[in-house]
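User: Last request for today: this protein with NAP, please.
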Amino acid sequence: MSVSVPVDAETKVVGLVGHPVEHSLSPPMHNAAFRELGLNYVYVAFDVPERELETAIVGAQSLGIVGLNVTIPHKERALRVCDTVDRDAELIGAVNTLRFRERRVEGYNTDGEGFLRALREAVDFDPRGVKAVILGAGGAARAVSFKLALEGADELVIANRTYERGERLARELEERTGVRARAVELDREVLREELRDARLLVDATPVGMHPNEDEPPLVTAREMHEDLIVNDLVYNPPKTRLLEEAERAGATPVDGVGMLVHQGALAFEIWTGEEAPVDVMREAVLERL
Ligand code: NAP
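Assistant: Here's the final one, the structure of the complex with NAP:
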């Protein structure tokens, strides 16, 4: 049952810093969770230009704000303001969640764990011993690939538009986690070969994201097979053309909504210490997509 808690003098504040933030789904997602549990918290979005990030974080701390989510373009820069960071944030080189405690800034990255929880929930995925192919080498690809490496994946293949960037990520993965990792060209024929013995394909690029829903997917049914899980991290729209291709191939499609919800649920738990009402958060997101 959802409990309405009025904003009053005791209301605790959490929020988001990014630029732009006006289309973020995090405020409705978190506020629905606070209402569900009857917690006297409110989540607000702060549009902060790059030059203001440090002063915004110091100011938030002085105001007694409990914590913040951090999104584009501040994820890397915010890490440098932190007094402590968790292992995932350190490996990824970026934070997506801050908690202010005893005048210290604690940094976390919940994207990788959110990704894995979502895959476990959707298809009971176990990363141990699998080969995974990841499209992209940006922030989301880093979060996903380091998490898969740390959780026992056997082999990671990074296919990025800018080959050198993919190569740098593959090298970093090998050096820092010991996993077998390689970069390949972002080419359908190459990917067809790589996917033959792969269990998981993750698209960590914005291809197919609103308002470019009609953009051709990077991989089609022809390159996929029935034992493949295809996870598109794009969540708007939830059903992308890549996932339609996965269905056509008889593969298992997984959308990006689960990761969005679970990375948020983990931040919620860091701030409140309460178990997040994941289903309520997902409903709040789906209502707006
Ligand atoms: P990012 O750091 O900007 O990285 C974007 C990556 O996509 C880069 O590797 C880039 O390649 C590649 N790319 C961009 N446009 C491309 C195109 N037209 N064709 C091929 N490759 C292209 O972005 P990000 O933060 O990693 O986010 C990537 C996607 O994941 C976004 O759609 C975002 O919405 C989604 N995401 C979802 C969640 C979730 O919770 N579901 C969380 C995080 C991100 P280059 O290196 O060549 O530029």
